[in-house]
Write a structure and sequence with these properties.
4 helices, alpha+beta, elongated, 4-stranded mixed sheet
Length: about 230
């Protein structure tokens, strides 16, 4: 995972009134837990917004008045109408202890099935997984360039060393569906076989037609010859 830096200040008091005062000052109340005692602190709203409102998943290097810790956002509360961050829970990471996170799914390449008129369907934008912090990647990257119409990537077809996925193994992550006007790719063996068969059939038909024409011509010539002899 990528790492973000965040500085915080310890909270002198813990309660709704103190939290309201902090928010009015442009700060967000936070708590760090997971390894021993909880630490209550606050950070600047502009700093935490850059981390929260991002498609990336970050492990956050916290500096709380000299106390340094590595954490990950476990839960956050937002204002019901303004969507501003009201509170953030950080889980302290331990290199020897697994952690569960949701990673974004990124697609690279252009699916062959889409070029043939199919429709790309991405069912999962994120996937839940568990692993040691050092094994967790920035994102789950899938190369979809080989996908044809009717093919898909399922959870059990994705393999990342040191990572275990928590979503259903048979769940479809991304697929190419048949769409109106879609055609079968022309580079498949089946298409080549059909093309060769059609060509052979046409050639056979032309040969038979030519043979019938030659026979009719010979018959006409024999008839004319007999007529001349009788005359």
């Amino acid at each position: 995972m990528k790492t973000a830096q965040l500085s915080g200040s310890l909270r002198a008091n813990v309660g709704k009134k103190d939290a309201t005062l902090l928010r009015n000052e442009g700060r967000v109340p936070c708590v760090l837990y997971g390894q021993g005692d909880q630490t209550h602190f606050s950070v600047k709203r502009v700093d935490i917004d850059k981390i929260v409102f991002s498609p990336e998943v970050y492990q956050v290097a916290l500096d709380i008045e000299g106390k340094k810790a590595m954490g990950i956002i476990r839960e956050l509360q937002q204002h019901p109408t303004k969507d501003t961050i009201q509170h953030v829970d950080f889980y302290e990471l331990n290199d020897a202890k697994v952690v569960s996170v949701k990673l974004p799914v990124r697609l690279v390449g252009s699916a062959r099935g889409v070029f043939a008129g199919g429709r790309l369907m991405q069912v999962f934008r994120t996937l839940s997984c568990v692993g040691l912090p050092s094994a967790i990647p920035d994102a789950i990257t899938l190369d979809i360039s080989t996908l044809k119409i009717g093919q898909s990537f399922r959870v059990n077809s994705i393999s990342i060393p040191g990572i275990t996925f928590l979503d259903p193994a048979n769940a479809v992550v991304v697929s190419v569906k048949m769409a109106r006007g879609a055609v079968k790719p022309a580079d498949t063996d089946e298409d080549d076989a059909d093309t060769n068969t059609e060509a052979n059939t046409e050639a056979k038909a032309d040969t038979e037609a030519k043979a019938d024409t030659d026979t009719e011509a010979d018959t006409t010539a024999d008839t004319e010859a007999d007529t001349q002899e009788e005359a």
